[in-house]
Design a protein that fits this description.
There is one protein chain. This protein is α/β, with parallel strands linked by helices. It is built from seven helices and eleven strands. It has a single domain, classed as DHBP synthase (Alpha-Beta Complex), CATH 3.90.870.10. About 45% of the residues are buried. Helix 1 packs parallel to helix 5. Strands 1, 2, 3, 4, 5, 6, 7, 8, 9, 10 and 11 form an eleven-stranded mixed beta sheet that branches. A hairpin with a 6-residue loop joins strand 10 and strand 11.
Amino acid sequence: MSDRYPTSTPEEREEAVEAASLAVQRGELVVLPTDTVYGVGADAFDPVAVRELLSAKGRGRDMPPPVLVSAVTTLDALASRVPEYARALVEEFWPGPLTVVCHQQTSLQWDLGDTRGTVAVRMPDHEVALEVLERTGPLAVSSANRTGMPAAVDADQAEEMLGDAVAVLVDAGPAPGGEASTIVDCTGDRGRILRRGALSLERLNEVLEPLDAAIVDEG
């Protein structure tokens, strides 16, 4: 069973962030809050930990996890050939519930699964998550649930589904968003929605239309 850390005081929060950071460095899995739903995370550059993350969720290599980062500038360290329309979306919606899929940097020594040379990146709008990410660097993070189950929106739900698989569970109360991020494929000439989520097509296109890069709704 995982160690659970509350975050209701500055002292508790520091202890929780430190415990999560150390667990990640040891190659263990952690549950952390985000602005959308709770996530289960592992060091993105630790292939064994990433495999354990996929296993804990009941996923195969064909469903690689996205990577959470603590700064917009990290996108260029992980992704290459980032189109201007993707940068416009990131500038408008990060930190926030937008995941962008880009070509990954070929120099990266990692194994997130069968990514076909891409990486999905997001900067969450949650102070506790960002504090953890600032200490750990990029984390492979997927929603804290078993595949096929609803995403956990509080620590109790995450513990129920994944408590046996994770070392540390950071409890920051109910996730404020409760809805998963919108995923946009940014590997082509214009974006394509891969998963509908907290950001609507209309909101995305408010940014993209002036660039003549509006996303066509494919139903």
